[in-house]
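WARN no homologs supplied; continuing
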Amino acid sequence: TESSAWHNRFYITHDVSGLQELYRGRLCQRIEAMFSRTSGPAFKNTGFPIHEMTEAAAIQADFGLYAHNNQPVHHILWVAKKAGCNELADRYLRKT
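OK structure emitted
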């Protein structure tokens, strides 16, 4: 898959209220954590960085682990809006 556990943990677009309940009302904080977190480089056996990590490094300062350049994350801002995380979602929607 092209996404990570950070992206898939919010992939319950058919039941956002259930997802909000699962996170005990802290869904907005969990999504925010993904946007503020960064990761270190990942390397192939050749010792060169994986091209996805090079792309991610270019946008991590603004988007953390969100990775808008990869389609499997496009649902997250919709989930954030649906969950009432309007300030958070609007901040990143204006950046994309």
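The chain is about 50% helix and 0% strand.
OK
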